[in-house]
Amino acid sequence: MQKNILIIGACGQIGTELTYTLREKYGSDVVIASDIREGNEPLMHSGPFELLDATDYDALEEVIAYHEINEVYLMAAMLSATAEKFPMRAWSLNMNSLFNVLNLAKEEKVSKIFWPSSIAVFGPNTPKDNTPQNTIMEPSTVYGISKQSGERWCEYYHNKYGVDVRSLRYPGLISWKTMPGGGTTDYAVEIYHKALSDGSYTCFLNAGTKLPMMFMDDAIRATLELMESDSEKIQIRSAYNLAAMSFTPSEVAHSIASHIPEFKIRYEPDTRQAIADSWPSSIDDSKAEKDWGWKAKFDLKRTTAEMLKNLKV
Ligand SMILES: NC(=O)c1ccc[n+]([C@@H]2O[C@H](COP(=O)([O-])OP(=O)(O)OC[C@H]3O[C@@H](n4cnc5c(N)ncnc54)[C@H](O)[C@@H]3O)[C@@H](O)[C@H]2O)c1
Question: pLDDT tens across 302-311, in order?
């Protein structure tokens, strides 16, 4: 069957790179990018684009029918730091967009869904180190509550209605093509930009705040590998733990200083510190490795080299 893909929230940090990669793999014409706003020039010129509100069921249904879509990547969401400022808007966007897509799949209008979860599903009572797949969760942020609820609904729609939905608990993602969109791990992208433009950075988290992180190339590869796996291999229909590396702001600063010796960092923690403190330090992703062969390729050293090389030009 011809694969026709819709990416919702395609202009964001992940959606942009996901769109490029899927277009390279399957061809530009069969990968429809959509968002509530227009994206950057390269994205807008790389293939078809639809202005689309993920919370509008009828509009979504129309786009899916028009382009004969069978696979949906739902990347639209309000992220952790912004969601704390607008709790009800975050809940409404994060849940309604997911229900719309799950219900379209239930009605057999699409056959496969990717929806990202996050390490934010874990909370202050979760074991912090090497956090297992199944453990105490109790998220304490609006974003985390929406992601944990989303996971439960994904599993429910799979078990009850046979919906082929797949999900990953992404760690903080580091990329150079698009800026991050209001998360707690945004510092780990901003720091590289500021290192090159100003030679210094004021970090909104404490020096020792260790969080799970991943370079974007690994995250996109994990997403495609999960989506291409045989359905029988996907034993977890809530969301898989996914990991690559864990580091602190001080460790990134040292890693940058090995390329830019004069680089200086200062710490002025703000409200995002409390969010970061509620999350795990490192993640056990052995289930992803066992079920569909996941293995990360980028550590901090390699990530720093890639970020500085690509942002310099
Ligand atoms: N970036 C990370 O580090 C990270 C980590 C864990 C999970 N995630 C998850 O991955 C997904 C994508 O994250 P991202 O970092 O690319 O986010 P982002 O904020 O960069 O992008 C989200 C996109 O959704 C769009 N959007 C917002 N409201 C919309 C609506 N009503 N209809 C259609 N589009 C709408 C925005 O315009 C934006 O382009 C989210 O579900 C997020 O929770 C991201």
Answer: 999 999 999 9
What does the chain come to in residues? 313
What's residue 149's pLDDT? Answer: 98
Instruction: Grade residue 33 by pLDDT with cuts at 50, 70 and 90.
Output: very high
Strand (E) positions, the chain? 5-8, 31-35, 49-51, 71-74, 112-114, 117-118, 165-166, 168-170, 172-174, 200-203, 211-215, 240-241, 245-247, 264-267
Q: Is 73 part of the annotated catalytic residue set?
A: no
Q: What is the pLDDT of residues 63-92, one digit of tens each?
A: 999 999 999 999 999 999 999 999 999 999
Q: Which of 16, 20, 35 gets mutated to test ligand 1 (max ligand atoms within 8 A of its CB)?
A: 35
DSSP, res 232: G
Q: Which ligand 1 atom lies nearest to the CA of residue 54?
A: 32
